[in-house]
Amino acid sequence: MSEEILIVDDEPDIRSLISLTLEDEGFSTVQAANAEQARDIVSTRLPSCAILDIWMRDSDMDGLELLSWCKEIYPDMPILMISGHGTISTAVEAIRNGAYEFVEKPFKAERLILTVRRALQAKRLEVENQLLRARTAVYKQPDLIGNSAKMKQLKNDVEKIAPTSSRVLIQGRPGSGKETVARLIHDKSSRSEHPFVVVSCSRLSDEKGDAELFGSEIFQYGRRIIGLLEQAHLGTLYFDEISDLSSTMQARILRAVTEQRFRRVGGTSEIISDVRIISATNNNPQEMIEAGKLREDLFYRLAVVNIYVPELSQRREDIAQLAKYFVQQQSELLGKKPIKLGEDLLNALRALEWPGSVRQLKNVIETIMILSSDDDGEPVGISALPEFNSPSNSDNNTQTLNETFMSLPLREAREKFERAYLLSQLERFDGNIHQSTIENSGKMIHLTLFIVRTWKGILTNDNRIHSELAHVPIKELDRVADLIPGDATFVPIIQETLSASTVD
Fold first, then answer.
1. What is the DSSP letter of 468?
2. Which of 27, 72, 352, 475 has a CA positioned 20 to 30 A from the CA of residue 191?
3. Where exactly are the structural domains of the chain?
């Protein structure tokens, strides 16, 4: 994708010479013979840079007046002034009015090319600084963190999608990192040196959304409004929660996406739009279409490529890495020493449901960092984990963790949980195994084997006997069959399970 340079000069030979020189260097060019033609071009497209002659015959504006007009519309567009009759005072006035540089005719091609490149580089640096300030302000994670199978697949998808110009629809739960994925696609694309502009769809009302998105020719505070779509020229426009748009705004966006051009509010000229569109939603698009909240034609325009960002509960193996990353992040932000997360705390974090996905984990780590003491240097344990509400548990909104289980390795914690569960079932029915089995409606066989395995200590994966229960006499286990009178179906199952044991 080449950057476009506007050349304005009343001499055709000069325009052609500059155009050929720049095109040989890989730029694209557009020419204007006077200020009127230049205004028409600038009104319908956004050049990356402009070269303006100061003195122009048959023009209703001279170069300095055209400079002021361009800066009023596009303050960030770099502009070079050229003249064969320049003076020091003219050059000073041009720079004061916003020109990047003043080049006197005749000029060497090498100097012109170098000046254009420097002007474009200065613009790119300014855009990068703005993006960095924006990212620092909200403290975004810079990359996709995690080595789980789902994250490896997501990273692979991003690498394949980024170099293309295809529109992308990103789906995922709130807080899963959809914007992070969108930024990464932008950063790895050929548009990375150009703006990444975020559109918060929930804020685009029918009354003000047009001006905010498309811009307005109706002057406010002495200057026209440049819309988000125009700001993203040559870059990426990210629609956050596309289904939050009203049907009216969806129709207007559909037209702009389809035709790749639009008009400012109150304007008559059509603006050429060269942007890559990435959209995101936390809803099921098909359900939104059926509910009439998302236009089907808009969906198929935006969802050329679909990406799903897994929620945190679907990639628990990444939780420890994410938690340590957020510790380092918050340490820099809060000016505190990084804390060490204990294994019991990490096990607890892996066990939670995380309805708020990655964002919720970040908030929990931030809370731990704020409340922790960095004096002793000891690992922070499970006691530092704050209680928080979990919509996934309707019976008990406050999700608490049992230190007895969470501080143990998975195998040992599972065995202890099985024993605890069995005891609670027996206690519930006063030791009546038969009743507890019937209560589990259709799962009697599974519960019987569950009881045998628990008492015997047999692991389901390989039938090995746990060493700590190897001393249990087999006759004690045989009593399980006797506790289920009149149900001969269970006896061969139990005997088969017991015969698989090597305990004497």
1. G
2. 72
3. 4-126, 158-309, 313-406, 410-499
Which segments of 2-83 are extended strands (E)?
4-8, 28-32, 49-53, 79-83
Contacts of 49 (CB under 8 A, 6+ apart): 3, 5, 6, 77, 78, 79, 80, 116, 119, 120, 123
CA gap 380, 400 in Å, rounded? 17
What residue type is assigned to position 370 of the chain? Answer: I
User: Domain 4-126 class?
Assistant: alpha beta
pLDDT, tens digit (0-9, with 9 covering 90-100), for 154-173: 999 999 999 998 999 999 99
Instruction: Reply yes or no: is the peptide bond before residue 142 cis, omega within 30 of 0.
Output: no
Radius of gyration over every alpha carbon of the chain, rounded to an integer in angstroms: 34
User: What is the distance between the alpha carbons of residues 445 and 88, in angstroms, rounded to a whole number?
Assistant: 97
CA 136, 140, 143, 147 torsion-angle sign: positive
Same fold, 4-126 and 158-309: yes
- Structure-token pair, residue 48: 């990356």
pTM of the model as a whole: 0.58
Q: Which of these, 330, 328, 387, 391, lies nearest to 356 by C-alpha position?
A: 391
Q: Which residues, other chains included, contact 380 with Cβ-Cβ below 8 Å and sequence gap of 6+?
A: 339, 340, 341, 342, 345, 368, 372
How many residues are listed for the chain in this entry? 504
More confident site: 156 or 466: 156
Amino acid occupying residue 391 = P
Distance CA 325, CA 328 (A): 5
One-letter amino acid at 354 equals: W
CATH of 313-406, one of 3.40.50.11890, 3.40.50.300, 1.10.8.60, 3.30.750.24: 1.10.8.60
Considering the chain, what percentage of its residues have pLDDT values greater than 70?
70
Describe the chain by its helix, strand, coil percentages, rounded to 5: 50, 15, 35
Query: In sequence order, what are the residues at sequence separation of 6 or more whose Cβ sits closer than 8 angstroms to the Cβ of residue 142?
Result: 135
User: Beta partners for 261?
Assistant: 272
Cα separation of the two ends of the chain: 77
CA 269-61-219 angle, to 5 degrees, is: 45
- Note whether 156 and 192 are within 8 A (CB): no
Are 212 and 204 spatial neighbours (Cβ–Cβ below 8 Å)? yes
CB-CB neighbours of 416 under 10 Å? 14
The C-alpha torsion from 196 through 201 and 203 to 209, rounded to 10°, is 90
Element at 406 (helix H, strand E): helix 403-406
Q: Which helix H or strand E contains 236, and what residues bound it?
A: strand 236-240
Nearest to 130 by CA among 279, 247, 235, 40: 235
pLDDT tens by residue, 276-323: 999 999 999 999 999 988 999 999 999 999 999 999 988 989 999 999
Nearest-5° Cα angle at 455, 452 to 456: 75
User: For residues 328 and 191, is the Cβ–Cβ distance under 8 A?
Assistant: no
Question: What CATH number was assigned to the domain covering residues 158-309?
Answer: 3.40.50.300
